[in-house]
Amino acid sequence: IMNIIIALSNIVFDYLFIVVFGWGLFSVALATCLGIVLSGIFGIIPFLFQNLELKFSSLYINLRIFKNILYNGSSEFFGNISGSLYSIFANFV
């Protein structure tokens, strides 16, 4: 739902800022940022105003579980880093 809010608000803000106001390229970045902020606001409202089972709590880090998370996520991390480095290198060539 949050991705839909981001996409739709981005489309609306892009049209409004570029076509109606004529703000140019800066408005594209502004529309994207506003869409993300709007989605974040919609996403946090239930946690603030409704009685949900999911609530904010104090942070407790189990080091063994954290180590497993780092181990499992490292392949994705290094894959993204190598893809980014390849893109940077390809843009220079």
Task: Write up what this structure looks like.
With 93 residues, this protein is mostly helical. The chain has two domains: 1-54; 58-93. It has helices spanning 2-20, 25-49, 63-92. The longest helix has 30 residues, at 63-92. The model has no long low-confidence stretch (mean pLDDT 90).
| Total beta strand runs | 0
Kindly give the count of domains. 2
SSE order = HHH
Q: Which residues sit in consecutive blocks of at least 5 with pLDDT less than 50? A: none
Instruction: Please indicate the percent range of residues in DSSP E strands (runs of 2 or more).
Output: under 5%
Please tell me how large the radius of gyration is.
20 Å
The main pleated sheet reads as: none
Approximate helicity band: over 70%
Features:
single chain, 93 residues, mainly alpha, 2 domains, 0% strand
Quick overview:
With 93 residues, the chain is mainly α. The protein has helices at 2-20, 25-49, 63-92.
Task: Give the secondary structure arrangement, pairings included.
Blueprint: H1 2-20, H2 25-49, H3 63-92
Helix pairs in contact: 1-2
